[in-house]
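Write out this protein's structure.
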Amino acid sequence: MTQLFDRIPESIFRTLSAVVITLLFAIILFPLYFMVTTAFKFESEIYSELTWIPRDPTLSNFRDAIVNFRIPQYLSNTSIVAFSTTAIVVVISVLASYSLTRLRFPGRAAMARGVLFVYLIPGSLMLIPMYLIIVKIGLKDTFPGLIIASMSFSVPFCTWLMMGYLRTLSSEIEEASLIDGCTRMQSLWHIVIPLSVPAIITASIFTFNNVWNEYIFALVLAQDDKHKMISVGLANFYRSDYYMVGPMMAGSLIAMTPVIILYILAQRYVVGGLSAGAVKG
């Protein structure tokens, strides 16, 4: 296979690569383009024929999504759960990853492997046990219940991510600080955390995104409108016997905007955090 690629002229190889990348890019962006154009169409145009550009653009779908389908309420609920979960998960993950990579105690290796095993468990297998636990402690249809459920799949991932990053950091600076009289917590706060900013931001972004887009746990654990999240609220865009496609697309566009803005602002940190462990300096 390698010899076959070596025989292809570089110009042809570049052209083929550009064509393949363009096709993949178009396939990925087409659903987004369809959602954006549909959000600005009247219902009559959506159901009558397929048009690539709205004939008569309208903002009525956004008005319906905001006024009639409680999008602001769902966004507020999701923001509370997402930001709270992210803050708690980052604190727990930093402390756990530091303990598992820097401290020496019996069972450390087994606990590290356990974090990986828990991360690999599909969320659907945890749904019924998590539901029973949340109901038993009386947190169904509450924000704390949603936060605890979100932590169950976010903490293992972030801990494993932080462990991989901390292994690439030299421990000599920490040892020097301990010799100079710093405690473990002082060394963690003043040395490890500042050096781990890319990994912390990466873990925060992925946690926030996972919680924001979570559907199964949000559907089962919060069924009242006071605590319903945006992913579940978007499924309620229907009247009697048909879905309101226009308001649904408008609501989806509104729901994805905060995550897109977050990724744009933190892009360089995300790339740095993901590639930090690729080459050990």
